[in-house]
Amino acid sequence: MPTQVLTGTLSSEEQDALSDPRSLLTIMHQLRQDITREAEQQYKLWEPEIQQPSFVPSAQNLAAYLSLRKRDLRPLQTALMPWGLSSLGRSESRVVPSLDAVISTLATIVEPDSGSRPARPPLQTFFQGERLLHENATALLGPASPGRRVRIMVTLPAEAATGFELVRDLLQRGMNCARINCAHETRTEWEAMVRQVRLAEQASGHPCRILMDLAGPKARTGQVLLPEPKTRLHVGDRILMTRGPPVASVEYPLQVECEIPNVLDQLRVGAQVWIDEGKLGTQVDEILPEGLVLKVTRARDKGERLRSGKGLNFPGSQFQLSPLTRKDREDLAFVVQHADIVGYSFVRNASDIDLLQHEIRSVQEERAKTLSLIIKIENLNAVRNLPELIVHAAGKQPLGVMIARGDLAVEIG
């Protein structure tokens, strides 16, 4: 029975074949062979990037999972259900052992008295993925609090720099990881926050990891110019997005500054610009020397307020922007010295991972393998390149993946 039956609509002949356990067993053998072959080819491409031996089983399983998920498994899973075998859709952490378990059981059904049946995978192998996940989570975020499997991360407010009691109470109430946002405050406040966390650890007896989140090249609105009594923008309004502080103009009374002006040079007429997590949707209507004319295409009936410091998103546009700004590179010296985890924003492809690892090594060589990393997935390229991002990062240091659901939703809809 050809493996092509795993895709598309099945004919009556194919449906009859799938109801036969012998045919199912043949299909499963062929499926396992195809997946292991494709996974080995993929792993060989990744192998030069993997420096941590402990990541090898995870990388091999990831390669097998990507191969498995290229196929429409629904007909096969439906055919396996009457035999009590339908686990392929939940095989993320154990792709090959799941295939082996199904093959072994089908072989038992087909030839119950045969002494040459394929062996079932041992429990240790079958649940290796869960064990690795637990170990990796502990390596990244520390041990979970008693009675919980999850960890709780708290973004520290500015008050934490001088508020020992605040930090201690957060730890006692279950905080496992303290996040310091490098987009706010200065090294003086960061150092004070780190000191309060370490003192609170000693006082409470609760361990706590410190994540320092690099600011990255986040485009935001700067100064805003609105004529009185205009307080809200509506569909059809036109805004001049400027490269510098707005200058009053009769022709363009509504203006807003873009804090990363070179982004404007990479946009074209028709490009989308979303403001404040998508609350205000606009489209580039005209390109001028001083900036871009945006036409409001989406707003609530009562209108939307335009304020400074709000995030900008550009779905569908491709930018040549490094995820590490000059400020990020300067901040890394402090982060490498004080943090357990570094947060990395606006990652798009594997070369971005290589760039950060190079910068960490330039600060302190030995920290490149021990400093944990959390990559933030917040654009379409990062979604498409996620397997490569994981391999390039986790192949060298402890890794976590954060889904930045706000920015990502605006970027991909």
State the order of secondary-structure elements, H for helix, E for strand.
HHHHHHHEHEHEEEEEEEEHEHHEHHEH
Q: Tell me, what's the shape?
A: globular
What is the rounded Rg?
27 Å
Sheet/helix structural class: alpha/beta
| DSSP strand tally | 13
What proportion of the residues is helical, as a percent range?
40-55%
Beta percentage is 15-25%
Written overview of the protein:
It is a single chain. The protein is built from 15 helices and 13 strands. With 413 residues, the protein is an alpha/beta fold. Among the domains are: 3-126, no CATH class; 221-313, PK beta-barrel domain-like (M1 Pyruvate Kinase, Domain 3, Beta Barrel), CATH 2.40.33.10; 344-413, no CATH class. A hairpin with a 4-residue loop joins strand 7 and strand 8. The longest helix is centred in the first third of the chain and has 26 residues, at 21-46. The protein starts with 11 loop residues before the first helix and ends with a helix. The model is unreliable at 1-8 (pLDDT under 50).
Concise overview:
The protein is an alpha/beta fold and 413 residues long. It contains 15 helices and 13 strands. Mean pLDDT is 91; it is low at 1-8.
For the structure shown, list the relevant keywords.
16% strand; disordered N terminus; alpha/beta; M1 Pyruvate Kinase, Domain 3; 413 residues; 7-stranded mixed sheet
